[in-house]
Amino acid sequence: MTPERILITGATGFAGKWLARELAQTLPDALLFGSSHHSTDATELPFGFVLLTGDLANADELAEVIGEAKPDAVFHLAGLASSYGSDRENIFRANVEGTETLLRLLSGSNHLCRVLLASTGYVYGPTQEDSPARESDVLHPLGDYAESKVEMERIARPFADIGNLSLTIVRAFNHTGPGQKPQFAIPAFARQIARIERGLEPPIVRHGNLTSQRDFLHVRDVVRAYRQLALEAEPVSYRIVNVCSGVPVVLDDALHLLLKQAQVPIETQHDTDRMRPFDLPASVGDATFLKELVDWKQEVRFEETLAETLEWWRQQPDLT
């Protein structure tokens, strides 16, 4: 039975807005709610979405959101992303305590609620070239963000035994596309190229480490997997699923694919300020379990993802 009332936490974030569009297009009869930590213009969401304001760390505010939405399904995307930095206390407050508060409130319902929790492929730590990460692998998180997601998974597990929650934890690997902030590699490259083309800076793209291998998907493919896993796969008390392409991409190759699309000649330059304290040499996943559960496949080629992202930055009126 398709849920009639659906809530996305973090609905005005990068993946949240893409998921909102996906649900609005595929579930026209559902009542769709989004929550955001800040009061945000609801025009960022598709027509008909109800935007609610609530702080994950504030149980009373979150209870009001849950009470208003009365969800049959929740996509929990809210939290602090890997680009946030090294404020461990705030990262754990958002990603762990906020999730625990949400699950405690949802567990008080008297009907089945499907819950999808967004984790990350970074929980595995560095992956091996000939062995993409599988859900059964031992975890080796590096850094506050990855460690917070491991802890989030740990505190979520007991809620699956309560009875009314069906929990799916998705370990999503790198996803990108139009609208992603330039704190991430692909939009950072694309934004610089767009600025260079507009004459706003010299023809040099500055970058950090380009030797890393990453597993990229267009965010559109990622949120489609989220929808299918939460709403189409058979409900179970608890499962963990990788969402990934299984194809490693070297960042240097990604940058040069973007440069081929540039409208002017551009050089590159290493910038130590763009280096990250925890930069995994490789992070690649195995999508076998995902494809066993639902009829999912990657639809957007990586080259198309790059082209869409660059074009989106070219269309932005303010690149200052």
Features:
single chain, about 325 residues, alpha/beta, UDP-galactose 4-epimerase, domain 1, 2 domains, three-stranded mixed beta sheet, 9 helices, 14 strands, about 35% helix, globular
Question: Can you walk through the features of this model?
Answer:
Helices cover 35% and strands 19% of the residues. It is α/β, with parallel strands linked by helices and 320 residues long. It folds into two domains: 5-175 and 216-243, Rossmann fold; 177-215 and 247-282 and 300-314, UDP-galactose 4-epimerase, domain 1. Helix 4 links the parallel strand 5 and strand 6 (165-172). It is globular. The mean pLDDT is 93.
State the low-pLDDT regions, or none: none
Strands of the widest sheet, in order across it, are 3-2-1-4-5-6-11
Give me the CATH superfamily of the largest domain: NAD(P)-binding Rossmann-like Domain
> What's the overall average pLDDT, rounded?
93
How many strands appear in the DSSP assignment? 14
CATH topology of the largest domain: Rossmann fold
Q: What's the Cα radius of gyration?
A: 19 Å
Class of the largest domain, according to the CATH hierarchy?
Answer: Alpha Beta
Largest sheet: 7 strands, parallel
Helix content: 25-40%
Number of helices: 9
Quaternary status: single chain
**Share of β-strand residues:** 15-25%
Write the layout of secondary structure elements.
Elements: E1 5-9, H1 14-26, E2 31-36, E3 50-53, H2 59-69, E4 73-76, H3 88-106, E5 113-120, H4 144-156, E6 165-172, E7 175-176, H5 185-197, E8 204-207, E9 213-215, E10 217-218, H6 219-231, E11 238-243, E12 248-250, H7 251-260, E13 267-270, E14 282-283, H8 288-293, H9 302-314
Parallel strand pairs: 1-2, 1-4, 2-3, 4-5, 5-6, 6-11, 7-10, 8-13, 9-14
Antiparallel strand pairs: 9-12
Helix pairs in contact: 1-6, 2-3, 3-4, 5-7, 5-9
